[in-house]
Structures are given as C-alpha cells and as structure tokens.
Automatic annotation (TrEMBL):
It comes from Pseudooctadecabacter jejudonensis. One of its GO terms (cellular component) is membrane. This is Putative oxidoreductase. The keyword Oxidoreductase applies. Keywords: Oxidoreductase.
C-alpha cells in the first residue's frame, strides 16, 4: 500500500535526512516549507532516491492561509497518510528580551502553526484508521531554563499537545511519536559552540524509524538525554533558580 509522508519544515537539516530515508523506502513525500527553490531541489533528490513522487507545497507556520493547500494535496492521496513535523525557530533569548515581539513568531513556528495543521489533519487520519505522526520537540521543553525559556515553553506546549493528540488518535489506529532531541548538528545550532551529547541529523532519523517500528510514545535522542532530563526535572526549584544550565 502506498505511503505518503507530509513533511512540515522540509528545508530543515533533520527534515532533509528524514525525507531521504522515506524516499528510499518508496514513499510519496509532500514537502511543505517556505523556500520553494529549496523544496524543488529536495523533491528532485527524493525522486532520484526512489520516492513514488515528491510534491513541494508552500507552508509558513505563521500564515494559516498556507495550511489548506497542504491538506488538499495530502488528503487526495490514497493509502496510508503520515505527517512529520520539523518546524521551529530558536532565536537567542537575549534577542527576545530586547524585542519581545519576536516571541510571537517563536510560538507560531514551534507550537501553534504545526498544532493547527495537525488538528486539521487529525479527522482524516481518524477516518482512515491508520497512519503516524512524528512531532519533533526538544529536551529544552522539559524544564524552563534561563538561556532559552521562550523556545523551551513553545516546545513544552507542543509536547503536551502531542500527548493529548496521541491519546485521541491512538484509539483509532493512528500512532503519535514525540521526539525530544538534544543538540543536533544543524543550521539552528551553528555558533552555539561545543554542546553536550551533540548528535547528527542522520542519527536522529535512524532513532525515529526505530521508535516508529516499536510504537514508542516518546523518544529522547541521544538516549542519554532521558536520564539527564529526569535528573534536571527533579531538581528542587529553589536550587534550580540558582543554576545556569
């Protein structure tokens, strides 16, 4: 049966690695993003790798007018329909402190935009009774930290949304996977300097596929972030307020 993957934020480094992987499996890919020239190049590469087809679609998480086009293309596809969300933005916290209006875009990119698309898609997946959703969040959403708490808040909200969506759609045969990467070698992390337990986009994608096969609910990647974040979440607030992590 034909599989279709909607990829939101298809120009990101991790998204491109994911697109390569499902293209090699023969899936049809719907590449949703803002940079149409980049999407066209990714579509050509996906087709060359064996994708059943590749369709670039304009998508801006801050512009709901672009959402319907994705659904129109996706719901016309036969077979199993899946969606992977790689959308997000992480401006420096000090930039947001200097200009609080930046906050709106961060929340739209990492939470409200992708959540709204998934909410529109959910009834179609429920009717089909099959499919998967991969939502990429961040370990930054596990606890508000002084260095990136706006980004962390957006990712925390997205993780909570995915948890509820998993509860709702899981009753209808649709699997929802929440992915919480630590630092990944991407354009977003350039300039941040050495980061603990840094990983690569290809490694994250390999972990995602393993988690999908096992029907995991939440994936930390690298795995070491699960015990690390468990400890961080247990630190009492009076102590945590004095820490710089």
């Amino acid at each position: 049966m034909t599989e279709t993957w909607i990829v939101l934020g298809a120009s990101s480094t991790i998204a491109k690695a994911f697109i390569r992987s499902v293209a090699e499996q023969g899936a049809h890919v719907i590449l949703a993003g803002r940079r149409m020239d980049d999407l066209d190049a990714t579509a050509a590469d996906a087709t060359a790798r064996g994708a059943e087809g590749a369709t670039p679609v304009m998508f801006d998480a801050r512009d709901p007018a672009t959402f319907d086009g994705i659904l129109d293309v996706a719901t016309s596809r036969p077979g199993t329909l899946n969606c992977a969300v790689f959308v997000g933005s992480m401006p420096p916290q000090d930039a947001i402190d200097a200009d609080p209006s930046i906050l709106d875009g961060v929340i739209a990119d990492s939470l409200t935009g992708p959540a709204r698309v998934l909410q529109m898609l959910a009834p179609h997946l429920q009717t089909r009774g099959t499919g998967a959703i991969v939502g990429v969040g961040s370990v930054a959403g596990d606890r508000g930290r002084v260095g990136n708490y706006v980004y962390g808040a957006a990712k925390a909200g997205f993780a909570t949304y995915l948890s509820g969506l998993r509860n709702a759609l899981g009753r209808h045969g649709v699997h929802v996977l929440t992915v919480k990467p630590g630092p990944v070698e991407t354009a977003m992390t350039e300039g941040l300097g050495p980061q603990p337990f840094m990983t690569t986009a290809d490694a994250v994608v390999a972990d995602i596929h393993k988690a999908l096969q096992k029907k995991r609910n939440t994936l930390y990647t690298k795995w070491i972030w699960w015990p690390v974040m468990t400890v961080i979440k247990l630190i009492p607030e009076p102590i945590f307020k004095k820490m710089s992590i």
